[in-house]
TrEMBL record:
This is Dipeptidase. Metallo peptidase. MEROPS family M19. InterPro entries: Metal_Hydrolase, Pept_M19. It comes from the Bacteria. GO terms for molecular function: metallodipeptidase activity. Gene3D superfamilies: Metal-dependent hydrolases. SUPFAM superfamilies: Metallo-dependent hydrolases. It comes from Ornithinibacillus halophilus. It holds the Pfam family Peptidase_M19.
C-alpha cells in the first residue's frame, strides 16, 4: 500500500556529512547511503509515494549563519535528492500529487522553524518560490515568531508569527503546529486555514510536551487539520526509548476515538530520531506498519491513514 510521510530530517544529515560531521569526511548519497533512513532504496521498498523533507537549522547555529544553512539544505534537496534521482519528482504545488506516475516518488520541501528567515519576510517569500509547502513556526525553542514547546515561559505568537500564518494561508501552505507552545497552538487555530501536526502523537497516551492533548486534537479535527503520528519512541511510551508497532497503534486508536479517522497520517521523523519502533527502523519497513494496521482496521481506513486522508485534506 502506498504511503505519504510528512516529516524527515534527511537534508540535515546530508548537510552534516557534507560539512564533515558527524559522518567523517565521507559524503552521504541519498540514493543508497544506509545512514539515511529515508534513502531512495528504502523509500522504494517501503512503497512511499511521497516524502516530505524538512529544512531544519540546529539551534546552536549563530543567527547570522542560519539563512546560509537553510540555503545549503535547499541546494542539497535540488542536487542530491532530485538532481541525481530521476524517480524523485518535486511537488511544487498540491496539484502535482495528481500527476505522479507509477514508480515515481513525490518530494516535498518543508521548513521546521522560522529561525531560517528571522524577521525577513523577503526570505520567506523566497522559500515559497523554492517550493516550501509547509512551515512550522518553531522548533522547541523560541524565535521571533513564537515560543516552542520547550520554551519555559510558554508564550504564543508574536505579531510577526501571526503575519507568517496569514502569508501561509495566502500561499496555500500548511502551518505546522508540531513544535509549538500550547498558547501558540491555540493562536494558530484562530488564524490558520491549513493546520497540520506533521509529526505528533496523543498526550493522553504518552504525556510528552511534543504531543497534543485531547482538546488540541479535537480542535485540529474541527478545523480540518491533519495529525500525522510520529515514530519516535519517547513520544510513544513515556520516558522510554523503545516501542512496538502495537504501542504506536494505541495513539492511532485514540485519535480515531476523538473523531479523526479521516484526518490521521504518518510523519515518521526518520533521520531526526535516535531510537526506533521495533520493525519500523527506516522507510523500507513501512509495510510492517500497514500490515499490522490491517489487523485492526478495514483496508479503506488504513488506505486513509497511509495516504488518502492527506490527499483529501491538502490545501485546496
Amino acid at each position: 500500500m502506498k504511503v505519504i510521510d510528512t516529516h524527515c530530517d534527511a537534508l540535515l544529515k546530508l548537510q552534516l556529512a557534507k560539512r564533515g560531521t558527524p559522518y567523517g569526511q565521507e559524503l552521504l548519497t541519498f540514493t543508497d547511503s544506509v545512514e539515511l533512513e529515508t534513502n531512495l532504496g528504502f523509500l522504494n521498498k517501503g512503497e512511499v509515494m511521497a516524502q516530505f523533507f524538512a529544512i531544519f537549522i540546529e539551534p546552536e547555529i549563530p543567527s547570522d549563519e542560519k539563512w546560509q544553512h537553510a540555503l545549503e539544505q535547499v541546494d542539497l534537496f535540488y542536487t542530491e535528492v532530485l538532481g541525481k534521482n530521476p524517480q524523485m519528482k518535486h511537488i511544487r504545488k498540491w496539484e502535482d500529487f495528481d500527476s505522479l506516475k507509477s514508480g515515481e516518488i513525490g518530494a516535498v520541501l518543508t521548513l521546521e522553524g522560522a529561525d531560517a528567515f528571522g524577521n525577513d519576510l523577503t526570505k520567506l517569500r523566497h522559500l515559497y518560490r523554492l517550493g516550501v509547502l509547509s512551515i512550522g513556526l518553531t522548533w522547541n525553542n523560541a524565535n521571533l515568531c513564537a515560543d516552542g514547546a520547550g520554551e519555559p515561559r510558554g508564550g504564543g505568537l508574536t505579531l510577526l508569527g501571526k503575519e507568517v500564518v496569514e502569508l501561509n494561508n495566502e500561499h496555500r501552505v500548511f502551518t505546522d503546529v508540531s513544535h509549538l507552545s500550547v498558547k501558540g497552538f491555540w493562536e494558530v487555530m484562530e488564524l490558520a486555514k491549513y493546520p497540520i501536526a506533521s509529526h505528533s502523537n496523543a498526550r493522553a497516551i504518552c504525556d510528552h510536551r511534543r504531543n497534543l492533548d485531547d482538546e488540541q486534537i479535537k480542535a485540529m479535527f474541527a478545523n480540518n487539520g491533519l495529525i500525522h503520528v510520529v515514530f519516535n519512541p519517547p513520544f510513544i511510551n513515556k520516558d522510554r526509548h523503545d516501542a512496538s508497532i502495537a504501542d504506536l497503534i494505541k495513539h492511532i486508536d485514540h485519535l480515531c476515538e476523538l473523531g479523526g479517522e479521516k484526518q490521521i497520517g504518518f510523519g515518521s521523523d526518520f533521520d531526526g530520531i535516535i531510537s526506533f519502533v521495533d520493525d519500523l527502523e527506516n522507510a523500507s519497513k513501512y509495510q510492517n506498519l500497514i500490515n499490522e494496521l490491517l489487523k485492526h482496521y478495514s483496508e479503506d481506513v488504513v488506505r486513509g491513514f497511509a495516504y488518502q486522508n492527506f490527499l483529501d485534506h491538502r490545501p485546496k
